[in-house]
Every structure is written in structure tokens, then in C-alpha cells.
Amino acid sequence: MKPTLLYNAHFVALQKRTHNITAVLLNNGIIEKTFIVGKKLPTAMKKIDLKGNYVIPGFIDSHTHLISRGLELQRIDLGKCTSLSECLEKLRAAVQRDDDLAFGSNWDEFMWPHGEKNHLMKETLDKISKKKPVIMRRVCGHFAVVNTKALECIPRQWKIVDRKNGFLYENVVDNLNEIFKSSKGMLEKAIDLATAEAHSHGITTVHEIATPERFRLLQELKRQGRLRLRFAVYIPREYLHEVASLGLSSGLGDDVLKFAGIKIYVDGAIGAQTAALSRPYEHTNNKGMLLITTQRLRNIAEIAEDNGIQLMIHSIGDRATHAVMKTLERSLDKKSYLRHRLEHIELVDDYSIDAMARLNVIASMQPNFVRRWQTPGSMYERYVGTRYKDMNCFKKLLSKGVRVIFGSDCMPIGPLYGIEGVVHHPSITGRLDPGEAMRCYTTAPAYATFDEDKKGMIETGKLGDLVVLDKNPLQEKSLCEAKIVMVFVDGELVYKKNE
Ligand SMILES: [Zn+2]
Fold first, then answer.
1. 33, 69, 238, 357: which has the fewest Cβ within 10 Å?
2. Quick one: 354 and 481 in the same domain?
3. In which domain, by residue range, is 230 found?
4. Per-residue confidence at 18, pLDDT binned at 50, 70, 90?
């Protein structure tokens, strides 16, 4: 690749130190040199005029199911359906085509007329087909409804399956892509499609949750020079023992693809009323559930610590996070040098916040949930009542010294979408200014994978991962209108907005 000079731009300083950079030289995949105002620029080389636009470090999406997202792009998207019958119509059309199954995802009953979800069960989907599997997976990814044919394909070993109604919960839902296998061609196409989508949102690195099979495919594509996004991969807990016995520890790999850690689940989700809360969901006696005993969790934490494996711990409810932090406090005698991370922590108590700060446990959170569910009358308020305002308390966590990193969970993918929610958070315990919000999507996630010396900032020697925006992202109003103009990964232009 030829050296390229990006000039005539505002390179935005997201860190405290200001630097007034107006041009950078990209070479060999890195920022080889920066030029401040008034400095003479080199002449004889490839140049790109950024026309006075604003440049920030590439976004790092800290929690993705990108390959699944890519599969979904090849499946039936029910995310925009405003009624159950509209969903069913789309599934029926798929069955009538040649598709060997009808797999619809992203439905959200909060988009439908009130009460309509009560009509969604096995029999409803049997009417669409008795011969082909029909699957409707909820937007949260923790709940799905399937027809009789699909139920027959689900092995008995999966426990949280209501075979009478065709309801699937938790792990089994997560594994639908495994049970109803995708072809290798579909998976490869999934990576290409989702990569293109990620680029269009300014994402240059993802922290991807992937099975060993998918990790292997990523390695294969990398060898062929086909990966154009950086992947830090987290493998499901079932493989912890294999990973540990092989001697794999977090960080193995390179800047394009590496093993980052092990993902475990401690509870469910608010939307499915399975996240473990300290007080019940509104108008119920249900407090959700812990999916793992503290003894088992402690055992996992010790294996992880002994083997240098970072843990990515799904923990949404305040009761879940409290239990996790109590356990970590016992098994880590000092600060975690592995930078373990808790995913989502949508509701969290003060004890847990202090413990996270003390033990250097990262809060990996989803700003887009604010826009989706945290407005008055939305899902959070309906399910947890007045507690909803203080959910996703990014500001409180930061001010107590917890490192907060942002990810989309692909719901939907798009850092700017999420950041807009954060700067308009309904509570001051959550609201951040644009600069703080952007650091949670750039600098902070680099730290989470031990890459703070390599990315997340615009400096000499950092990787050539950059995003060009048409508006100043540090001003709240213009941030919300900003569009992505260009994206560079490894010093190469991977996305350019159509003019
Ligand atoms: Zn997730």
C-alpha cells in the first residue's frame, strides 16, 4: 500500500490534551506522522483532501454478534413489523419460496398492538408450516417461539424449552444458529455483509462473541487476506477447559484477529423478565433467575485467573451483578490484571459499582438500549417501574472510577445511534457529554483488550483506523446530525459515503 496523506481536516482530540492536528500520514497500516497547524506538508505522495471534515479514531464496538448479524441479513427481519400478522406474512412468504426453513428475528411486541403477543405460540406457527421449521426469535435474543417441526429438531438436552407452547429461553435461543446449521458459504457471506455494515457505521474493531467453528472460519478468511475489520474474539464458556488445557491465554493472535477471552452468562434479560433483580418485576413476584451458582462462578474465575484468560460476564440485573462482584472479590485477592468485564449491567447497586472500581472490572454497556427502552412508557418502565430512570448509569460509573466501554450488541449496530441516546439520557446518573460518550466507544474499549498503546487515539504510531465525520462530534447538536463520510482500517479506505 502506498503512503497516503489525509489533509485539510480537524483531527478531534478525544483526550484531555489538545493537539491541533490537521493532517496525518498513513503508511504500513499505521499513523506514521501527524502534522499540526501551520506545519509544511509533504508533496510528492497520494493525498486525500478531507475538505475540512472531522476525524476521530475508529469506533470499537465492544459487544457484537456480528457473524450472526450477517446471517440475519440473509434471513427474515421482523424488526420493523408493527403487528404479529405482519410478521406471520413475512414468514409465510419464506416458506412458500424454496427456503428450507423460515427463520425470522428481531420481533419486538412493543411495536405491536398491546396484548397481541398472547396469540403467539406453537400453534400459530404450525399454521404457517407443518413440514418446515418456523422460528421467531425475539429482538433480545433470549426468547423465541417455534413451530412443532422446529421443536422436533431441538435436542432434548436443551433444558429451558417449553415444548407445550413452543417457547425457547436463554442458551437454546443463543444456539439456534448452531442447531439449524448455516452452510459455510452462508457464514462467509455473513462476515462480508456484516463487515460492510460495520464499516458504514465507522466501526473498525469488534469484540465478537463466536463459537470455535466461527473463530476458525475467521482465521481462514484472515489467511486469505479477506478480513477488513479487526476481531477480538470471545469464546463461550463451554470451552473454558479446552482453552485452559491448551494453554491459550487472552491476547494470542495479532492486530487483525485475536483470542480475547471467555464469555459466560450469569442471568437473562429484562425484556424476557429473566434478568436477576433484587426486587420483583412490576406487578409480579418474579425476580428473574441466576443461571449459575456462585460456587461454579468462583471456580470459573479461578481457572480464568490461573490461566490468564479474561472473562466477559453477561450480568444484567442488580442481583446478578451483586453476586458476581461478591464472588470476584473473594477469588481475586487484588486488582484484576486481566481486566475482566461485565456485560450490560443495566441495573446496578452501589456496592457493585464500588467493587468494580476497586477490582478494575470493566463495565461493558449498550448505549443504544437507552433509546430503545429507556424513554417514559417504554419496556424498562413497564417492567421495572420507577427504577427505570437510573438504569444504564454511565455517568455514575465513570465518576466512581469504573471504566465504561460501549458496544451495540448489534441491537442495532451503530455507535452514533447509541451515543445520541447517551447525551439525551433521561437521568443525570446516565447522561454523558459527547466527548465522554465517544471515548467509551474508542479509547476505553482499546484498554479492554490491552490495546491502549495501539488504537483508540490519533497519535503517531497508532493503527491507521480512522473515521471522517461531516460535523463536529464534540458539539451535542451537530453530533446528532453527523454523518460518516469515510472510514479507514489499517490505513486503507474501506468506506466512502455516496455523494
Ligand atoms: Zn450479546
1. 238
2. no
3. 201-448
4. low
Q: Is residue 456 part of a domain?
A: no
Same domain, 302 and 220: yes
Total domains in the fold of the chain: 3
In angstroms, the CA 135 to CA 125 distance is: 8
CA–CA dist 263, 212 (Å, integer):
12
47/89 same-domain check: no
- pTM (predicted TM-score): 0.87
CA distance 106 to 109: 10
Indicate if 86 and 165 belong to the same structural domain.
yes
- For residue 64, the CA-to-ligand 1 centroid distance in Å is 6
Number of C-beta neighbours around residue 376 at 10 A? 9
Q: Which residues pair with 60 in a beta bridge?
A: 205
Task: Report the separation in Å between the CA atom of 81 and the middle of ligand 1, taken as the mean of its atom positions.
Answer: 22
Q: Is the pLDDT of residue 334 over 80?
A: no
CA angle 403, 404, 408 (to 5 degrees): 155
What is the pLDDT, as a whole number, of residue 16?
65
Q: Specify if 342 maps to a domain.
A: yes
412 prior amide bond cis, ω within 30: yes
Calpha distance 415→10 (Å, rounded): 20
List C-alpha distances in Å: 36 to 155, 258, 388. Answer: 62, 34, 45
The Å distance, Cα 290 to ligand 1 centre, comes to 17
User: Residue 98: which pLDDT band, with cuts at 50, 70 and 90?
Assistant: low
Q: How much distance in Å is there from the Cα of 363 to the middle of ligand 1?
A: 14
Q: Is 62 exposed, middle or buried (CB count within 10 Å of its CB: 0-12, 13-18, 19+)?
A: buried
Q: Report the C-alpha gap between 290 and 308 in whole angstroms.
A: 26
Do 279 and 329 lie in one domain? The reply is: yes
Q: For residue 170, what pLDDT is reported? A: 82
Q: Ligand 1 centre and the CA of 65: distance in Å? A: 6
Q: Do 467 and 382 share a structural domain?
A: no
Which CATH number covers residue 8? 2.30.40.10
Question: Is residue 194 included in any domain, yes or no?
Answer: no
209 CA to middle of ligand 1, Å? 8
CA distances from 155 to 147, 168, 177, 350 (A): 15, 12, 14, 41
CA-based nearest residue to 444, from 404, 415, 391, 386: 404
